[in-house]
Amino acid sequence: MADKTATLSFSDGTPEITFPILEGSLGPDVIDIRPLYNKTGKFTYDSGFLSTASCSSTITYIDGEKGELLYRGYAIDDLAHHCNFLEVCQLLIYGELPTREQHEKFNKLVLHHTMVHEQMHFFMRGFRRDAHPMAVLTGLMGAMSAFYPDSMNIHDPKQRERSAIRLISKMPTLVSMAYKYSIGEPFIYPDNSLSYAGNFLRMMFATPCEPYVVNQVIERAMDRILTLHADHEQNASTSTVRLCASSGTNPIAAIAAGVACLWGPAHGGANEACLMMLNEIQANGGVEKIGEYITKFKDKNSGVRLMGFGHRVYRNYDPRAKLMRETCHEVLAELGLQDDPLFKLAMTLERIALEDDYFVSRKLYPNVDFYSGIVQKAIGIPVPLFTAIFALARSIGWIAQLNEMIADPEYKIGRPRQRYVGEKLRKVKPLNER
Ligand code: SDX
Predict the structure, then answer these.
(1) 8 A C-beta contact, residue 176 and residue 186
(2) pTM of the model
(3) Most ligand 1 atoms within 8 A of CB, residue of 69, 306, 364, 372 to mutate
């Protein structure tokens, strides 16, 4: 038995049971309750998984109290200032930052798989032009799962790596296709001479009619946006991907499930919802009306929340929000938008909320979504596409977490139980007696 244990005693005569306490390398210990049901016939109850560790992982660590985020042990601000997104992809997949030679090889590999199968274009034709990009991306992920029979066996590490590379390579192409389709412009093929972020910007904003020059400040900002959104421990969409993939299904199909989950406004859809909130405040009196909105955000019956604030784990500033605000300043200065009213409104809203006891007492701080919408809008990305870019970045986290789960000899198909509160056994009455 482990040297640290937890003993559960029951008032209903069930014999007490002792569980081992397992330590992590960082963060809370966990009580290993796996034998609980077999030994006591009882389940634990934790809807929303507020106190439940679903797995052991070596990928990302979050300290909610301190507002710290580590990818494979490296602090997010260290990575954001010293690495590019593809280096971070290698770190998340392989566990170590690449050497120059490894990075150049990976860069070449990724940039030479950026085209999608030409047949993928036909799936786009089925969508309305005004279809939400996250609906399109969910569909394209499902479609893409049919194209690579050579990487269906997720128990083969080589095939898992192939799926990861394909996903990193092709997501920018698919997201830019969703955008181009929505505005009726032709798809732009990848240009492998550009950086990963530069290639994405060109596929988004270039046209066949004239040369497109990548703005290096915007390129760096896009690269940072991708790094900040790459992974985040066992959030809702990552847990969805893990649970879906635990059945052994096609990994790209499991990513489609993650895209669908990320779409929600409580999760990845918050950046879109946050910008819509800022636009609404701006259109209805701006800074002068912030007090009225804050009152509404605090009123449970209003049905609206201060989007971009609060987090299940962070009880302090989301470190990504600070970095995103820094990127905001850089991009707005580069584009001569320092007086961007939405940015000023966001900073005023942040200051007022952080002085309001309702938010302070509940430890509600800005999260990554609070500023990401402003910087993406400044770059020229349409609001409905914000979450699709979040999905582009998070694909690396999803596939790294999926691959870690499949490689874990202890992994089983995920199958939670429930507390049943429905009808007890009853007999069916014939129709004429009901
Ligand atoms: C992401 O999990 C991840 O890691 C996600 C993510 C990632 O990288 O994958 O970080 C990305 O999803 C960031 C979060 C984006 N969502 C938003 O910005 C939407 C607004 N935030 C809230 O909906 C909320 O804060 C959540 C969903 C983010 C967290 O929800 P919790 O932990 O379940 O918090 P809760 O609902 O239990 O709230 C605790 C209290 C409640 O009040 P009381 O019942 O205690 O009186 O805080 C209140 C809530 O009403 N509250 C808010 C609020 N967030 C929480 N009140 C007003 N505005 C808010 N934003």
Answers:
(1) no
(2) 0.93
(3) 364
